[in-house]
Design a protein that fits this description.
2 helices
């Protein structure tokens, strides 16, 4: 005897597996976006805290107030600029010895005494 499976049962089964796969893909994509957003917000907050704590700026003068306004208004893009201009040289290695003033070539005499 031949057993027939109703067509509606087959369609609902494949539709639910496609729906489950789409849901998992959506959740994975959402998780990646959420992690990226959290990382950028932490970077933004980190640069604002560094700006508040820093006493000397390469641009001089009223740089702290200007940087704070720029960081708050322009967000992550300003944080990247702040990192490249103010933080990159000394934030990771505060006790790093100074490089010679001959263009960074170690092993040669400095140009200035």
């Amino acid at each position: 005897m031949i057993n027939f499976v109703p067509l509606a049962a087959i369609e609902s089964s494949s539709a639910s597996s496609v729906g489950t796969a789409a849901t998992l893909i959506f959740l994975a994509f959402f998780l990646v976006i959420a992690i990226f957003w959290l990382a950028t917000m932490l970077f933004w907050v980190w640069t604002i805290i560094d700006c508040i704590k820093r006493n000397e700026f390469k641009l001089g003068g009223q740089s702290k107030a200007i940087w704070l306004v720029v960081l708050i208004v322009f967000g992550v893009l300003a944080s990247i600029a702040y990192y490249l201009i103010e933080m990159r040289d000394n934030s990771w290695y505060p006790n790093r010895p100074n490089l010679p003033s001959n263009g960074g070539q170690i092993g040669q005499k400095p140009l200035r005494p």
